[in-house]
Amino acid sequence: MSRDVEAAHRATESIQRTDLEVNPLHDSLNNIRTATSRLEIASSALQYLSNRPIGSQMLANFIKIKRQEAEPNEARTKPQPTAIKLQIYQSQITNRKE
After folding, report:
1. How far apart, in whole angstroms, are the C-alpha atoms of residue 54 and residue 47?
2. Does pTM top 0.70 for this prediction?
3. 86 vs 70: CA distance, rounded Å
4. What percent of the chain is helix, strand and coil (3-state, nearest 5)?
């Protein structure tokens, strides 16, 4: 009887060791599946937005705003070339009227 008990005890220990080795692997696979499905959902949402006329414009504006936020403040306060050209054009028009 003691041999049977020892064999059963060894088998139980072996199963427990196997469970300890398999469970972290199983958890990791579940985490990978979850992350993959979330990435697929995000990718689908971005694809959907980029295909819509309004969504693509909103996405482009969002990217533009993020780029502007990343620029230093001096770059935003500098007059743009088109604004300078507009001022010159307006001054030429007022000079002609006088």
Report:
1. 13
2. no
3. 27
4. 90, 0, 10
C-alpha pair distances (Å), 52 with each of 41, 62, 87: 17, 15, 37
Q: What is the 3-state secondary structure (H, E, C) of 13-58?
A: HHHHHHHHHHHHHHHHHHHHHHHHHHHHHHHHHHHHHHHCHHHHHH
Instruction: List the structure tokens of 42.
Output: 């995000």
Q: Are 68 and 76 in contact (CB under 8 A)?
A: yes
Distances (CA, A) of 22 to 34, 47, 62: 18, 37, 45
Q: Name the nearest CA neighbour of 61 among 49, 73, 43, 72.
A: 49
Series of mean pLDDT values for 10-residue runs along the chain (98 residues) = 70 68 78 91 84 68 77 58 71 67
Domain regions of the chain by residue span: 2-97
